[in-house]
Specification:
binds zinc ion, 2 domains, alpha/beta, 5 strands, five-stranded parallel beta sheet, Zinc Finger, Delta Prime, domain 3, elongated, Rossmann fold
Length: about 325
């Protein structure tokens, strides 16, 4: 665990301060539910909270020098237990949850807190989630549970309501861009990569710059062809689903929202739209309505990735619905 690096994630500063206040006031809850999309640093934040709680310096933040901090740095602290979805698994398994609950029921090795971090909590099924209920209802002393889930989680209310929520927000674009600059992302394409990452800086840093920019260009072409109805829909669907589908859906979402914004502005001022035409108001309204429909469908497709649904077929139906008119 790299405490220094975690503390450079500026947009998590408020969350860290909140934890420090709770720690200082002795008001730490037994469980947090950290809600975050990918790339905002929910994992590093959970690590930092665990370290702040386990640190033996009583300074309210990881000192980086005490025995506990050293054990954490070596990923070897006996009172920190982690569970994440295994590679290729669709869910965190109930056995993993039971092992975690078990580990948290013993006395702490170092006489302080015991901390459990459970990532991908949105993938817990009902019985796995319910296995937590007893731990949440009757937590043993000095236990802290950190659940990390996507904002669209479907955790039962019995679980979610027993955790204090910590919602990670996307940083403002200027903040994210200057952080990316400080972290060595070249200026060319920086803004594009951030957009393709839905504003999540850590995700933008992970993307391969050249291939992400190629993908953007290819999508511009694809959408123009779809609009002009000059392309075979099933071929488009096949190509999108086969490579970088999640990224393409984010690109599509961005494209749709930009378009809605530009048409909305055109409607308000009567100026030309991105198509350089002035549309009659009624047509404009219909067009915007259509785009909102497409946006809903694109978000639904995003939800379906990671399920066993035939994505190509689902995408093809969406394209037919929105790009083929009688
Ligand atoms: Zn320490």
């Amino acid at each position: 665990m790299d405490f220094k690096k975690i503390e450079t994630l500026d947009w998590l500063e408020d969350a860290r301060r909140q934890i420090q206040r709770l720690l200082a006031g002795g008001r730490l809850p037994h469980a947090f539910l950290i809600l975050s999309k990918d790339g905002l640093g929910a994992g590093p934040l959970a690590d930092w909270i665990a370290a702040a709680v386990l640190c033996e310096s009583a300074s309210g933040r990881p000192c980086g020098a005490c025995p506990s901090c050293n054990l954490l740095r070596a990923e070897n602290h006996p009172d920190l237990h982690r569970v994440d979805r295994e590679d290729d698994a669709l869910q965190v398994k109930i056995d993993q949850v039971r092992t975690l609950i078990d580990a948290l029921s013993y006395t702490s090795y170092r006489g302080g807190y015991k901390v459990g971090i459970l990532s991908s909590a949105e993938t817990l099924n009902a019985s796995s989630a319910n296995a937590f209920l007893k731990t949440l209802e009757e937590p043993s002393g000095n236990t802290l549970l950190l659940l990390i889930a996507a904002p669209s989680h479907r955790l039962p209310a019995t679980i979610a309501s027993r955790c204090q929520r910590l919602v990670l927000r996307t940083p403002a674009p200027d903040l994210a861009l200057s952080w990316l600059e400080r972290n060595g992302l070249a200026e060319q394409g920086r803004a594009d990569l951030l957009q393709l990452s839905h504003g999540a800086p850590l995700r933008a840093l992970e993307l391969d710059c050249a291939s992400a920019l190629n993908l953007s260009q290819e999508m511009v072409q694809s959408v123009a062809q779809l609009e002009a109805r000059r392309v075979d829909l099933s071929l488009v669907a096949e190509r999108w689903v086969k490579s970088d589908f999640p990224l393409r859906l984010i690109w599509l979402e961005n494209w749709i929202t930009d378009r809605i914004r530009s048409l909305g502005a055109a409607g308000a001022t009567g100026v030309k739209t991105v198509d350089a035409v002035v549309l009659p108001r009624s047509l404009l309204k219909a067009k915007i309505r259509g785009l909102f429909g497409l946006l809903d469908d694109a978000r639904e497709l995003k939800r379906l990735t990671g399920t066993s649904i035939n994505l190509q077929l689902a995408l093809e139906q969406t394209l037919i619905k929105h790009f083929v008119r009688e």
